[in-house]
Amino acid sequence: MSKAIRIFETGGPEVMQWVDVEVGDPGPGEVRVRHEAVGLNYIDVYFRTGLYKQPLPAGLGMEGAGVVEAVGAGVGHLSVGDRVAYAGRPTGAYAQVRVMPADIVVRLPDAISFEQGAAMMLQGLTTQYLLRDSYRVQAGDTVLLHAAAGGVGLIASQWLKALGATVIGTAGSEEKAALARAHGCDYTIVYTRESFVDKVKEITGGKGVAAVYDSVGKDTFNGSLDCLKPRGTMVVFGNASGPVPPFDLSVLGNKGSLRITRPTLMTYVVHRELLEPMAAELFEMVTSGRVKIEVRQRYALADVAQAHRDLEGRKTTGTTVLLP
C-alpha cells in the first residue's frame, strides 16, 4: 500500500486528504514512478478550488521526479531504474508512487538532483515556451515580468538575462524585489507601493516594453496592456489574482496594434516532438549554470495543506518541493 493526496470535494487546503492507495502495474504506454520529490505550483490551487475542473475524487500535483519502477508495453524511451522527471496532466503527482502516461516523462540528467528536477519541470518548461515561442525574446528587448520572485519569475529572470534582454520585474515587497534583482532583473518595482505602469514608462522613457509576461491576471491585466509599446505582445499565463474578465478586442488596436496570447504548458507536453527539444534546452540551461534552480522551501508531502496556505498567502518565493 502506498500513500497519496486525494480530494473528494473542492475547497480550501483542508479538503486534501492523505490516504492509502493501491498502485498497480502500468498498462500499455504507461510507467510506474516512485517519487523522490514532487513540485508545488499555483495551478495545483486552481484544481483544488475547482477553478480548473476535473472529475472527483481526484489527485493533485502536476510535476515530480523519481525512479522508474516498471514499464508498460509499447514504451521504448524509458527503462526500469531510469532517473526521470515530468510535468503535465493527468494530475496525481502528490503521491509516493504513481502509474502515469509515459509520453510526458523524460530522463533526468545525472547532474540535476531529484529535488531540482521536481522543482524545475513545470516552471522551467513554462519559461522555455514563454521566452522561445509565445514571444521569442531577442537580445536588446526590454520586457516586463510580473511576480519576478515567484517560481517562474526567478527562472525567467535568469533566462532572459542569458538571452540579452533588459528585465523589469514586479514584486510585492522589497525583500522579494531584492531576490528578483539577484536573479537577473535590471529593474524592480514593488507594486504595493508604486504604480508599475508609471514606473515602466519612466524606465523606458515612455516607449514601453516589447512583451509583458503576466501570471497575476485580473489585477494587472489592464495596466500590463498600458506598458506595451506599439505592436507589443501580452502573454497571460496565469491568474493568481483571479481570471481576466471579458474585454473588447478593439482595445488592442486602440493601444497600438497589440498582440495577446494565453498559452498553456499542456498544449506542448502532450507532443513528444515539442517536449523533447524543450526539455533538452531547459536541461542545457541548468547544467551550463546559466539558470540555477534553487529549492527555497521544502515540506513533507503529508503536510501539503500548510504548503498551500503559504503559497496562497504569498509567503513562498521561487520553487518549493514536497517530499514523499
TrEMBL record:
<feature type="domain" description="Enoyl reductase (ER)">
    <location>
        <begin position="11"/>
        <end position="322"/>
    </location>
</feature>
<dbReference type="InterPro" id="IPR002364">
    <property type="entry name" value="Quin_OxRdtase/zeta-crystal_CS"/>
</dbReference>
<dbReference type="GO" id="GO:0005829">
    <property type="term" value="C:cytosol"/>
</dbReference>
<protein>
    <submittedName>
        <fullName>Quinone oxidoreductase</fullName>
        <ecNumber>1.6.5.5</ecNumber>
    </submittedName>
</protein>
<dbReference type="InterPro" id="IPR011032">
    <property type="entry name" value="GroES-like_sf"/>
</dbReference>
<dbReference type="InterPro" id="IPR020843">
    <property type="entry name" value="ER"/>
</dbReference>
<keyword id="KW-0560">Oxidoreductase</keyword>
<dbReference type="InterPro" id="IPR013154">
    <property type="entry name" value="ADH-like_N"/>
</dbReference>
<keyword id="KW-0521">NADP</keyword>
<dbReference type="InterPro" id="IPR013149">
    <property type="entry name" value="ADH-like_C"/>
</dbReference>
<dbReference type="GO" id="GO:0070402">
    <property type="term" value="F:NADPH binding"/>
</dbReference>
<dbReference type="Pfam" id="PF00107">
    <property type="entry name" value="ADH_zinc_N"/>
</dbReference>
<dbReference type="Pfam" id="PF08240">
    <property type="entry name" value="ADH_N"/>
</dbReference>
<dbReference type="InterPro" id="IPR036291">
    <property type="entry name" value="NAD(P)-bd_dom_sf"/>
</dbReference>
<dbReference type="GO" id="GO:0035925">
    <property type="term" value="F:mRNA 3'-UTR AU-rich region binding"/>
</dbReference>
<dbReference type="GO" id="GO:0003960">
    <property type="term" value="F:quinone reductase (NADPH) activity"/>
</dbReference>
<dbReference type="GO" id="GO:0008270">
    <property type="term" value="F:zinc ion binding"/>
</dbReference>
<dbReference type="InterPro" id="IPR047618">
    <property type="entry name" value="QOR-like"/>
</dbReference>
